[in-house]
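Task 17 of the worksheet. Students: predict the tertiary structure of the chain below and write it out as structure tokens. Keep your answer in the requested format; marks are given for formatting as well as content.
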Amino acid sequence: MMFTALRCLVEALRPLGAAVAAQVVDVTTTMARETAEGQALELGWRDNNVTALDDADYFRMALKKTAWMGMIWPAQLGLIVGSGGRADPNSVVRFGYFLGVAFQIEDDLRNLSVDPGYGKEMNGDLFEAKRTLMLIHARREGAPAERARLDSFLAQPRERRDPQEVLWLAGLMRRLGSIDHARAVAAGMAGAAAHEFDLAYGHLAPSADRSFLAGLINWVFERP
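Model answer:
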């Protein structure tokens, strides 16, 4: 389905020449590989019940799974096509990385709310035992008994995870400051994205397109 959708992109590249098309193909294949690796990484953590994770592991997963397809690759496409292949597509990688990680953290936080607002069940990520930034933090900060209870929960298959244990875990995250930690990290990532935006796009004259890209940083938190 993805390659079918890319047909429009391929058709649009025809008038731009072989050099531009080659750059687009290059960043697209990189995106496909990074995204597949990110999905495999996250699924592997769950399938193999990996618990010894830290924030850096989460950032790496979010870079690959979310940022590369959702933020880095589109920014690279715009840069390549808009400059006729003269601009360096790597110049927007850091902007897309920080923006993508902020987006993923916000997405994970919303899943804990009463109304996630995007068609998913409340606490669905906890039932799925997704290794979110909040879960990683709670396991790191919890007392030995809490960590043992959390590890026991994670070791259960999805259909055997008790809803009461899910509520306990959600409460543990709040009590240990895992929610606040994630919000602070997301805000820091957004600030870093704003800095990288200035480095990547600050030399361009003001325009609607430039304003749109800058507005994505606030959109991460304000989207419906």
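Marker's comment: The CA atoms of residues 197 and 213 lie 8 Å apart. Residues 18-47 form the longest helix (30 residues).
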